């Protein structure tokens, strides 16, 4: 990514794409842009799935949009909303691929937003589930694994140690699938839409473009592609590189630990969060991970500590932790989550953009 050039790219892209692309709000000051440019290290930004074999002229509006997000610096956040949503069982709703997703997103929101307005344990679980389903893929597994719903559809996966703690949210998705598959909804899409609904329901969370149309699979994803919190930094970085996620993207994605609680890394402190505000999508996680000493109410994952200190991730941690870090983090997270949510997906050009079904962002409590 060339951070310095994304504003130009955004301006040019708006003309290129028929789909409205939201330019990044001018909230990043120049010092943060400079810091992010440093954090980027000119790492390659790669295309994914079927986009690798298709010429730009062969792409539809969604293919072009996703291509632009993946490699051209477009903002993956959106402010598109439905003007009018047809009633669920109407013919108009059947004709509109996104319509049913509006009702699903509404039901998910009830589970993900607590009475205090903050995001719930189910929301944390849904974000982690989206990551664990998609991350069962690498460049060496081709079209096997990835965001295909197998974390729920292949019972073997939940028995893997790396998926400890996801049992309840897997049950919730089984329930949602039983309820909504009648409308033609797939598990892989449910899981990725759920992660994006959960993220935007967390106060300050970005509203990430959400696509549907992935293929489901009940074949267990290849084992060994999820990281251990005790792995050394180089091993973790290489694991994510093999998923086309470079260190800046990894640093941004790790910020999901802003809303997380651990149970199995240190069972004696089960439930301890990774920053002091686990119900809010804020940048406190970055500051508290970098701090010389841990705040007493939090537990820092060993992997977060070694990665935050690594020269390839430290500049991003520092930039996100700063007073103007929220907007660049949201931008980077949204873009990298779109990438993550498409790992192992080989019909990207045929997906449908249903971002308009997402609930609104909450900018304050
Ligand atoms: C080096 C990469 C990563 C490692 C080693 C890692 C490890 C962990 C561990 C050990 C836990 C606690 C599990 C438990 O004890 O209950 C956790 C929780 C969590 N992780 Fe990660 N993680 C990584 C990356 C990510 C990414 C990329 C995302 C999302 C984009 C993510 C989202 C979450 C969430 C939301 C939770 C909280 C789950 C809950 O509270 O139920 N993690 N992670």
In short:
With 365 residues, the chain is mostly helical. The chain contains 15 helices and two strands.
Question: Can you offer a commentary on this structure?
Answer:
With 365 residues, this protein is mainly α. The protein has a single domain (91-357), classed as Peroxidase, domain 1 (Orthogonal Bundle). The chain contains 15 helices and two strands. It has helices at 6-16, 30-40, 61-71, 91-95, 99-112, 121-134, 150-153, 167-180, 187-201, 233-241, 247-254, 284-290, 302-309, 314-321, 326-340, and strands at residues 211-212, 352-353. Strands 1-2 form a two-stranded antiparallel sheet. The longest helix is centred in the middle third of the chain and has 15 residues, at 187-201. The chain is globular. Mean pLDDT is 92; it is low at 1-26. Protoporphyrin IX containing FE binds next to helix 6 and helix 11.
The gross shape turns out to be globular
Bound small molecules, which ones? protoporphyrin IX containing FE
Counted beta strands = 2
Instruction: Supply the number of structural domains.
Output: 1
Q: List the helices and strands in order.
A: HHHHHHHHHEHHHHHHE
Task: From the alpha carbons, calculate the radius of gyration and give it in angstroms.
Answer: 19 Å
Strand order within the widest beta sheet: 1-2
What low-confidence regions span 5 or more consecutive residues with pLDDT below 50?
Answer: 1-26
Q: Per CATH, which architecture?
A: Orthogonal Bundle
Indicate the proportion of strand residues: under 5%
Estimated structural class: mainly alpha
Helix content: 40-55%
In CATH, the topology is named Peroxidase, domain 1
CATH C-level label = Mainly Alpha
Mean pLDDT: 92
Report the major sheet.
Answer: 2 strands, antiparallel
Count helical runs: 15
């Amino acid at each position: 990514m060339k951070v310095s050039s994304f504003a130009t790219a955004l301006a040019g892209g708006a003309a290129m794409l028929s789909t409205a692309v939201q330019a990044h709000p001018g909230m990043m000051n120049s010092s943060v842009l400079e810091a992010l440019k440093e954090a980027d290290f000119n790492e390659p930004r790669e295309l994914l799935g079927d986009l690798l074999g298709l010429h730009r002229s062969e792409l539809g509006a969604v293919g072009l949009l996703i291509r632009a997000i993946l490699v051209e610096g477009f903002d993956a956040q959106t402010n598109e909303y439905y003007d009018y949503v047809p009633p669920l069982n109407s013919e108009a709703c059947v004709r509109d691929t996104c319509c049913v997703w509006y009702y699903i997103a509404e039901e998910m929101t009830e589970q993900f937003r607590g009475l205090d307005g903050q995001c719930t344990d189910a929301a944390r679980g849904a974000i982690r589930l989206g990551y664990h389903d998609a991350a069962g893929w690498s460049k060496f597994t081709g079209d096997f694994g990835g965001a295909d719903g197998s974390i729920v559809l292949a019972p073997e996966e939940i028995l893997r140690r790396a998926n400890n703690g996801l049992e309840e949210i897997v049950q919730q998705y089984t329930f949602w699938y039983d309820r909504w598959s009648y409308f033609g909804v797939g598990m892989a899409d449910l899981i990725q839409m759920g992660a994006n609904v959960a993220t935007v329901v967390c106060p300050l969370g970005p509203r990430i473009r959400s696509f549907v149309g992935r293929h489901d699979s009940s074949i267990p994803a290849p084992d060994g592609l999820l990281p251990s919190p005790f792995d050394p930094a180089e091993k973790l970085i290489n694991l994510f590189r093999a998923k086309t996620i470079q260190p800046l993207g990894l640093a941004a994605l790790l910020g999901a630990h802003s809303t997380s609680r651990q149970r199995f890394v240190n069972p004696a402190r089960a439930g301890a969060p990774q920053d002091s505000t686990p119900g809010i999508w804020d940048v406190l996680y970055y500051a508290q991970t970098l701090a010389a000493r841990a705040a007493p109410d939090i537990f820092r994952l060993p992997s977060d500590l070694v990665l935050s200190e690594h020269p390839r991730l430290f500049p991003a941690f520092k930039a996100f932790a700063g007073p103007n870090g929220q907007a660049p983090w949201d931008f980077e997270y949204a873009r990298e989550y779109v990438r993550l949510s498409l790992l192992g997906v080989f019909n990207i050009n045929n997906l449908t953009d249903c971002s308009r079904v997402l609930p609104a962002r909450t900018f304050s409590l």
